[in-house]
Amino acid sequence: MGYLEKITDDRSRFAWEVGHEERLKLHGKWLGQGRQQLRDDYVELAQAYSELQRQISGLYEETKRSVVRSKKVIGCTTTGATMYQSLIQAAEPVFVLVEEAGEIQEAHVVAALSPSVQQLCLIGDHKQLRPKVSSFKLTVEKGDGWDLNLSLFERLIRQGHHFTTLTRQHRSHPEISRFSRLLAYKSLEDSEETWFRPALVGFRQRVIFVHHEKSEDELLGVRDRRDPDSKASKKNEFEAKMILKTVKYRGQQGYSSNEVVVLAPYLSQLSLLKQKPS
Questions:
Q1: The CATH classification of domain 72-163, taken from the options 3.40.640.10, 3.60.15.10, 3.40.50.300, 3.40.50.10950
Q2: Which of 122, 192, 235, 236 could staple 101 via S-S, CB 3.0–4.6 A?
Q3: Residue 232: is its pLDDT beyond 70?
Q4: Is 80 exceeded by the pLDDT of residue 117?
Q5: Helices (H), 70-218
């Protein structure tokens, strides 16, 4: 009889002696009681399973904790630091180093800090890219005070906290680095080896500005994140052709594709460049 034995009494043996409607009522009652019993049993088994799963996970976590505690250096992304916060806390780190701190949201850095942390070192450049925020309305540029793309790194500098800046660059030729000095880094110095960077083959100058008066088009339905007031993204056919010809010319001078970078300010322009035949 199974569940029926649990939910029925001696009167059930006389079910066939009552009328049809009464039997339907009894059937509905027993069916409901049977389903309820099944639900109760399922909940009990699910709770028991969850408890066993929790215990097994705890054993695995303890194994991971012992491994993490044995390490002197733990490396991860800020997202990973948040996901495995309890695991990192078990290691009791006293020093946290954040790279590219100017491009990381403040909440991500704070979430990575454990109670054991004694020193936080932020390395980055607050004058370059800010953290990415999906809504322009929440940015510093919008000016409404939400400032979600203001990193902890930049905020501390704005508040007058001490910071150290590198004063010498070792990458760009001085003809290029002078633009960095004009825009943001007035005291930037060039190391000696930068003066001996080889010139571009086939070009007269290291920096070339091209002026044209060909107007741009708009692609309706595609909107750029940094231009929320516009209902369309912009593209320029003339510039796309000029860029592709320049890239081709670079290849003819012996440069490989991994030595050339093309930056496009709009999604539509990027799409146009990808569609153009090389």
A1: 3.40.50.300
A2: 122
A3: no
A4: yes
A5: 78-83, 85-91, 106-111, 152-158, 174-183
